[in-house]
Amino acid sequence: MDPKRSAGVPPAVAGASRPRFGRVTIRDRGRLPHWELDAGLYFVTFRLADSLPAPVLERFRSERQSILATAAQMGRELSADERQRLAKLFGAKIECHLDAGAGSCLLARPQIALVVADAIRHFDAKRYRLLAWCVMPNHVHVVVRLFPGQELAATVHSWKSFTAKQVNQILRRSGPLWGREYYDHLVRDGDQLDRIARYVINNPVMAGLRNWPWVWGHDAPTTAGETPALR
User: Fold this and answer.
1) What CA–CA distance (Å, rounded) separates 129 from 54?
2) How far apart are CA 180 and CA 11, in angstroms?
């Protein structure tokens, strides 16, 4: 599969992207809350362990805890506004820091980027349908529609676990490769899908990376500087 090849989003996928039925499962595990829907469509980001400075991580965690604590003290679930604040906190804000290129940026090495790209593509059309993806120097974006019965947490874990072992072998090193957490957004409609897919395939250009080969997705017009509105 050529990473430079792009294809349009199938109309059936875009038209069915708004969840109309099914139970949304909220997974927290003491870290970020994740909203999961059977056969859901997701925008997922995971990053290298050294890609964010400690003060930045601490600030994000503090803001997150404040949002969650307010809802917990009032004995209620997160409001729509609080969910939007969390999405923005772990979306555009964190992306700005990632695109600055902090850390070792191991994914800029072609051999390492290929391991990650191959892992993402391995179960395409078997366990999920890929709509867009991009391997950046220190993080990864994936827009993916899970097939019924597949869980987002298990899917992301398989990507991270397999690639960590492979990359550590290549580099003859040990220790964590990826950050403990991943960031996801449940995509609700075709317009949102289009904005997010544009963002993913244009991320290298917006980060100043020219002729970047590790990107594939929805063949949308380039809109430099556009950030997906996670509403």
Assistant:
1) 35
2) 35
Sequence-ordered alpha helix ranges (H) in the chain: 11-15, 54-73, 80-89, 92-99, 110-122, 152-171, 190-206
C-beta of residue 131 within 8 angstroms of C-beta of residue 193: yes
Strand-pair partners of 226: none
Task: At 17, list the tokens.
Answer: 């992207």
Instruction: Mention every residue, 6+ apart, whose C-beta is less than 8 A from residue 186.
Output: 19, 24, 35, 36, 37, 40, 41, 42
Q: How many domains does the chain divide into? A: 1
pTM for this model (two decimals): 0.71
Residue 83 lies in a domain: no
DSSP letter at 21 equals S
Q: Which domain holds residue 207?
A: 11-51+104-217
CATH of the domain at 201: 3.30.70.1290
Report residue 171: phi and psi, to 5°: -90, -5
Q: Is 66 within a domain? A: no
* Per-residue pLDDT tens over the stretch 46-57: 999 998 776 676
Mention every residue, 6+ apart, whose C-beta is less than 8 A from residue 26. 33, 34, 35, 36
The chain-wide mean pLDDT, for the chain, equals 78
Contacts of residue 44, defined as CB under 8 A and 6 or more positions apart, other chains included, come to 141, 142, 143, 144, 152, 156, 182, 183, 184
Residues 208 and 180: beta-carbon distance below 8 Å? no
Largest Cα–Cα separation, the chain:
51
